[in-house]
Amino acid sequence: MADNCECTGDADRAQRDPGYRRALWLVVALNLSFGVLEVVGGLFARSQALLADSLDFLGDGTITLLGLLALGWAAAARAKVAFAQGLFLLTLGFGIIGVAIWRAMTATAPEADLMGGIGVAALAVNVTAALVLSQYRDGDANVRAVWLFSRNDALANVAVIAAAGLVAWTGEGWPDLAVAAVIAALFLHSAFEILRSAKAELTELRHAA
């Protein structure tokens, strides 16, 4: 029954449905615009978690734009784009871990109120993007990659808000760094999932050729 449901957002529908393209354009605009704002806010708040999240916003906006352009491409090309998305997440995850380790040696407590406020705003942006894309999350590797980006962002923002509360309570900087590490782990998990799915699709397409 699920396979015949028009709400599943399969790959063929995603290519035909102009609503999916509009959804992607909205997600691109939300990610890129808020990413710039969060970079500034993260610097003012001295929050590694916010800076990690801002890089995610900017990266997601760029990668989602690639996903939008890839909708009209052949299946093999879309799978390759998804593979590139997985590599991007993998690189970003390891990068955040490296920066968090470096910051742990010189960490100061961030501005908890500003950190929490930006986290709430970021959560609102990401929940909007996730809801817009939720009906398309069961498509091919490229479609799932775009959905995972927005879902992960929303989960990461909840962690940022929790960290801001812990920073305010303890007066220490470790919750901020801990959340940055959690965001990185989330990136890595999704990266491996996307890479595995894209690789399977490429293998299937080669065998079918």
Query: CATH first level: which class?
Result: Mainly Alpha
Q: Over all CA atoms, what is the radius of gyration? A: 18 Å
Q: Using DSSP, what is the number of strands?
A: 0
State the domain count: 1
H/I helix tally: 7
Q: Helix coverage percent of residues? A: over 70%
Please tell me the overall pLDDT.
76
Given the C-alpha coordinates, what overall shape results? elongated
Low-pLDDT stretches:
1-11
* CATH architecture term: Up-down Bundle
- Return the string of H and E elements: HHHHHHH
List the helices and strands and how they pair.
Blueprint: H1 11-16, H2 18-45, H3 48-70, H4 75-104, H5 112-133, H6 141-170, H7 174-208
Helix pairs in contact: 2-3, 2-5, 3-4, 3-6, 3-7, 4-6, 4-7, 5-6, 6-7
Would you mind describing this structure in some detail?
The protein is mainly α. It has a single domain (9-208), classed as Alpha-lytic protease prodomain-like (Up-down Bundle). Helices cover 83% and strands 0% of the residues. The protein is built from seven helices and no strands. Residues 1-11 have low confidence and may be disordered.
Compact description:
With 209 residues, the chain is an all-alpha fold.
